[in-house]
Amino acid sequence: MVKRTFWIQKIHAAWKKRPVVWLSGVRRAGKTTLARMLHDAAYLNCDLPSVNRQMADPEPFYDSLKKGTVVIFDEIHRLNDPSRVLKIAADAYPNLKVLATGSSTLAATRKFRDSLTGRKQMIYLPPVLWSECMDEFGIKELDRRLLHGGLPEPLMSGKKDTSFFSEWIDSFYARDIQELFGIRNRTGFMKLLHLLMRQSGGLLDYSHLAQLSDLSRHTVKAHVEAMSIAHAVYLLSPFQGGGRREITRRPKCYCFDTGFVTFVRGWDSIREDDRGLLWEHLALDTLRTITDDRSLHYWRDKSGREIDFVIEGSRKRVDAVECKINPDDFKPSNLAVFRSLYPEGRNFVLSPNVRTLYRRRYRELEVSFISIKGLEQPDIIR
Known about the structure:
Shape: globular
């Protein structure tokens, strides 16, 4: 079994701040396997009716546990009143450490009548990070990670199995969308989901998607919101710094995993021109892991000049991250325009072909060329 040290450490760090950790991520991302790596834990599979009956009155269960025990509620949204179970643990048994897993955020189900403010830390488990591929999964070929995606099962498979992706999409609709959101128009929803996966990394245009999917604009917006809550897509908002010619409203929409992007596009191999966009997806996973989602954006002006990722800091400081497969392909013109508007902050070019951080100057600009593993180091981007 691959020991996912980074995420285990992240969970333990979260427990130092709050008694409850909510671990969310799409189904088959490895949440259950990760949870079972926590030693000496009381594990409860909330899919089981017996667990639901037991948690109707959780106090006897909590009373039976020793101080400092780790309690795992796997798929906790299956319980009749999950927020009550977690609230009792946090308020009456603060010496316990609780890990609750689910394939969506807390907003996904009406069962959560309490948002557990001040009691929980949220951790999103993305598909396997590129740094994990190299360090823990023994995968060194970038094209394999881009083509197969980062869900552990297809990632570790020697050959891409398209039936896995078809079955996953069917299960996602049945268990995450139909059950949690009550969406009954399967045909329209699936058509929209495939469109978003096919157009992953592009600007979101609700009106155009409505035309292509034969849904109303209002329905498209509601479906996209459901997909976002269930982690199937991520909406990256534009950076709004006050420039008059900036894109300020339209988010970019990213599919959660490169394997599904290549699946819906029918790719059985990665071509040279495919790598750049797919590399952006891997960069986004890492940036979401090491920064606050609320500080992460893209920047684009009405002339089409764009910065892949912008990270807001304090005191008007904004860091800029450009993604390049080949670092020699970087051109500073877009960054120069951005820095003429927002001069404070660091500049990074993120590339899989950089081993050791190095810097180059382009007139007034200093740019750091860095790998994903380098970007994850403390005090680089925080």
